[in-house]
Every structure is written in structure tokens, then in C-alpha cells.
Specification:
The chain contains six helices and no strands. With 138 residues, it is mainly alpha-helical.
Length: 138
């Protein structure tokens, strides 16, 4: 019986390593961390950015798996929502940039002006969708 438990434990941890490796490989390939460091002119703190991303991934997994309460109050919830939204938006825009969806789409529909409005509407649509998802999930 204990052999089965050890096997399942090893399978679970190796699967976790594979998923985490893939996520961090995508994060590096998209260049989100290096772009944040470049835009904020804080490249000398790049190791802190990388450590924060790793710690955030670990803590996020622990909180989602074990579901222990984190007493942060309304300020903590709003701060988390803001930072998670910025990160998700940056990730989505980086993915869009990598696959060149926006330039290809704008060429196909022969769009000459209004690109900022399209990007703003995509961001607002994403925010409204996240709000509706969070509201109806409760």
C-alpha cells in the first residue's frame, strides 16, 4: 500500500515540476519580467523580479490547493486584484504580441486608424468578463 502512495507522490511532484517548468519557460519566452525591468529602469533588480515570480507561483499553488484563509482585509483583496489584473493583462498582451494577432488582424480588415480604441476595448472586455466571472462564482 505504501508503494502506491510513494508512486503517486512522485508522479504528482514530477507533474508539478513539468507544469511549473513550462509556465516559467513561457514567462521567459514572452519576456514579461525583462520587459517590466526595462520599462521601469530597474534592470539591476532583475533577480528580485525572478524571485518574486517564483515565490508568487509557489504561494499561489499552495493557497489554491490547500485553500487556507489569508486574512488581508479589503485593502489586500483590492491590491491583489489590481496586481493580478496587471500581470494577467501584461501576459495577454505579450502573448498577443508574440503571435502577431493585432497587426495581422488590422491588415486583414484594412484598419488605418483607431488601434488604441481596439486595444482599450479588448482590455475593458477582459475586465468586464473577469468581473462577471468573479460575481457569478460567489
Amino acid at each position: 500500500m505504501w508503494i502506491r502512495q510513494v508512486f503517486l507522490g512522485m508522479l504528482g511532484i514530477s507533474s508539478g515540476f513539468a507544469v511549473a517548468g513550462g509556465m516559467f519557460a513561457l514567462l521567459i519566452a514572452l519576456g514579461i519580467i525583462s520587459r517590466f525591468a526595462g520599462k521601469t529602469h530597474t534592470a539591476k533588480y532583475i533577480f528580485y523580479y525572478e524571485d518574486a515570480a517564483a515565490i508568487g507561483g509557489i504561494l499561489g499553488n499552495l493557497i489554491s490547493i490547500y485553500e487556507f484563509p489569508v486574512p488581508v482585509g479589503m485593502v489586500g483583496v483590492v491590491s491583489y486584484g489590481l496586481f493580478a489584473g496587471v500581470f494577467t493583462g501584461a501576459w495577454a498582451m505579450a502573448l498577443t504580441e508574440i503571435v502577431d494577432v493585432i497587426p495581422i488582424f488590422s491588415r486583414r480588415i484594412r484598419l488605418k486608424t483607431g488601434m488604441p480604441w481596439i486595444i482599450l476595448s479588448m482590455a475593458l472586455g477582459r475586465a468586464v468578463g473577469a468581473f462577471i466571472y468573479a460575481y457569478y462564482r460567489m
